[in-house]
Please model this.
Amino acid sequence: MNKSPRATPSLLLVSCALSIIACSSNDADRAAASGAASNAPAVATPARPSCQGASECRSACDGGDQAACVSYGKLLVNGDGVAKDARAAHELFTRACDAGELRGCVQAALDLIYGDGVLKDQAAAIPLLVKACDGGDAAGCFHLGNAQWKGQGIAKDEVAGLANLHKGCDGGAPGGCTFAAQMYLDGAGTEKDPVKATSLFQRACEELDYADGCFHLGRHHLDGIGAAKDPKRAVELFQLGCDRDVPRACNALAKAYTEGTGVAIDKAQAKLLFDRACKAGVKEACNGGKKKRANGSLCSGHGSWGMVCNGTCLSTYNNRNHCGGCNNACNGICDMGRCQ
Model:
């Protein structure tokens, strides 16, 4: 990642569908839809008048404060102090966008991308994201670039996508930094550049105070990817991420305590962290940080070929008729040395 159903774009978790980036908020999961590259420089979205609570935000919205309409719409989406109503929220976002409130454009676009309160229509989201990005909204550039990268709602254009992700990052949207970093790791729209990727994760973590960026920066220091190998620094970064509810950071920290990597071995602390990550949805953590292999798959254990039964490698494959161990562990039928 502890998460609200929908967070502001500037706090995106990028959990997401990417190979290494995970969203820590629902906006990260919903980041998709794109248009042509924007020529406008991305700048941080200006601070808006704030309202507190459903009653105050609704009153301000009724009075014509479009920023308050966006805030009230988010409360409607989350059911925070008011009954959930995604359709009414989308109407508020659209109205705010029409009135020039760019954050409303971004939220309305996300509704169209994910079908929240409106029929799903990724292509219809594109003009809204372009409008937001052209107007200088960093989150709009981030979502625009992400959609271009993935080809969602428009033809795939990795070069334009990377450019807009950079605009989002430069404007203060941390997801723009972390998604651009992934593109540099993959060599998407550019040459592979792990050093550049590391610098973007560092920017997200240290400049934009983005916990998921700290997790990825920790991974790079742990493995020496685009940065000096520094297990102690990695542990510090995993701790930062875990303290701020990034489940995979807790899992990585638990592994460090288990293996004594960058920190003294502490099995009790590792168990607490694995449990925390497991409850937050990190499946690997539920197995003590080990990726569980399927029952019946081949493995090598105890000096001979075996098979996996309930996550344990049993030496039952040295004789294809020797299936007792597998049957005992899996409570299934053993055929030709494999659990069925």
